[in-house]
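Quick one, T. Sequence first:
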Amino acid sequence: MGSRIFGRLVLTAVVLLLAISAMIPIKDRPFESYLFDQVAQDQKTAFEQLVARAKEQQDDEGKQKALLVALRDLGEIEQIDYSKFFPQIKVHDIKNLRTRNNILLQELLRSSKGKLKLGLDLKGGISVTLRAEDKIIEENGAMVKKEKNLNQAINILSERINGLGIAEAIVRAKGADRIEIQIPGASTKDDPEIINMVKKPAKLEFRLVHTTLHPSSGVETPVGYEIKVLEDEDKTTGELVRYPYFVKIKPETDGSIIKRARASQSQYGAPEVLMEFTKEGSDKFAAITKRIADENLRRGGRPGQLAIVLDGKLYSAPTVQNEIAGGNAQITGNFTTREAEELANVLNNPLEFELVIEEQSEIGPTLAEEAASQSIQAGLYGVGAVVVFMIFFYGISGIIAVISIAVNVIIVLGTLAMFGATMSLPSIAALVITAGTAVDGNILIMERMREELNAGKSVKTALYAAFDKAFSTIVDANLTTLIIGVILMWMGIGPIKGFGVTLTIGVISSMFSVLVLSRGLTELLVHFDITHKLLLVKFTNKFKFDYMKYRKAAFGIGWAIVIAGVVAFGFKFDRMFGVDFTGGDEVVMSFNKDHKIEIASIDDLNSRMNLGEITVTYQKPIGSEVEEMKLQTPPKQSDKTIRALVQTFPQADLKVISKSEIGPSVGNEIATYTLYSMVLALAGILLYIAFRFEWGYGVGAVVSTVFDILTAIGIFVIYGGQFSSPMVAAVLMIVGYSINDTIVVFDRIREELKMNPTMSLYDVINLATNHVLVRSILTSSTTLASSLALYFFGTGIIKDFAFVFSMGIITGTFSSIYIAAPVFYWYHKGNRRHVEETHDILPSYEWQSGSKASKKQ
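Structure tokens:
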């Protein structure tokens, strides 16, 4: 076996094993049972007794504490060292017992979680309602109430959650003074402090420490000062030492001087937070420290200190010897690396007012279990159809393609797990695109092989020629899709960012699986002369249809459909956007647990009565085992929906517990960033194609992509659909699919221009389109089969999602032939000489001679 073949297969095996190992374990394991699985054998009995005592602990409200918190508190009270129960976790070098236990328990919690994180739509998570406390400030000598800015708080909380690595959470207004947060895959039973670290005000203050007085018996607190206690860790024993100080009540400055904060480590390896000041903040901090240093010189006593106080707690009180003008400072204290990261995160996004937890619930998936299971089944039908088709049509080569696609999906999932990304419907949409590009890459190569074999070449020669000729097309198609993914990952927010991350990883994985694995396996077959069934169905591509003859009619019909869609969108604008974009009503209802209503039954009721977009989830308030129904409806539609449910399901004994208005989950910021990222992606595609090909190709690609987006949306509007956040993912899928199809056509046009130097531009476009017709039909058919399976067998939002993408597949194939190619033709005025003036390689004609052969015509 050749070294190149062996190297490709070994490289694939290594990457595949890394991806699989990154996904294990796939599912979450219950924290308690995981602890018992990990505890040392000789400590099991003692640990069981500890857990039993921990379970007896209650919080301030008389409820049982979460196990992690109970164990942590019990360890601190009884000075228990948990590292002896879990010696495999290397924390023995951490001196402080509390810190050591905290790090160990958090590591065990993290390890118990599945590596593949699922979003709210697929798994559910926790829902918390926070109430904004009024802020009282002094204004002109009077105490007045400051109006709360909920929108600002929502943006800050979103940034904090993103900073914690929690992807695709929902943060939105609820009523006039409350904020609802939904965090996917989280559980307050296992990690009860997740909300506390999100809602911290992060009120940072820099205060002066009294220079001469120190708290001790008989010393009264000076006027204008208060006692603050600094807890620090003894570097030798690890024990906590308490240092009391008289700290001035009025701060010298606050956290507004900070530009950026980040977690780091001190010279002793202890976690700390580094702060970078703004320009004005740096000047202000320099002035404060200069004043302290000057006071030191004047007094001739011990150096003055500057207290760093966060949310009323003294974190550090460094001495000030000289003016600090470097624009940086640090916060040290007795906290873990995670606590330092959380502290830096909240300092970067400070809140102006206090948020109080009002409600906490464990929620089920927003995508109904029935819808999820049916959609998975539908997806399997689509995948099965693709597998059967590929094997029937391409024989052994089809089997290789199927193996390549499967490996591609595993690599994408493993990489997502490795980086802690969240899988939700938009992420699955991006995964479908990457599988589609992998199918397309294999079909491109196999069709090229068919051409070479029909030309009379040997199998081995045809193989290498096919990969060489398809290489540039595959790279160009994937790199343009990669531009989209990178820009969405950079500019996107929430689910859009998740789509971009998955798409970016998927594009790279697709190129690897096609160009490395598929080639390695095919070369292996050729090496062992297993080639008689390499391509099962044999035929010669003799298509000679005159596509350009109908370009004007097709172009006009296509844009007429776009105009019809735009008109329909205008007429239906007020009804086009769902709760995700407009907000709506949220109702929490109790019900008879023996007659729980299936979500599918509510969907059926909705389809009969046309109640509008309804989202139903079931939740359990924290500390309660009583399940509740949460119902989200369009604005002012909740009463009508409640009446319909009560009348249709009287045995459920539905009763309203609470009713409130909710804001959109796709806020203006997400919508704006999505629009910006789309425009930037199209600009990036235009520039790449113009650089890689020339401007005419770039203009054609952008126009056809815009056409595909508008057509799919227009047909969806005429069809009667309503936009929700998953529809954004469907539109993004269309962009990725459309540009991939267009690049294949353009790459063949460029090749035929070089291969046929005397042929007119009109005939070159026709020839190129006929050559790629089989590939276009096969790729579209396989992708469309998966999408239609989701449409016919899926339920709920999955049907709308599949409908939009199916339209995108059809329009993408149409636009590559009748929008992109004609725009390219008209851009160059139908003259190939105009193309050659800017083309990357100018052909040499037989009628040219001497130096003229190198000149542009």
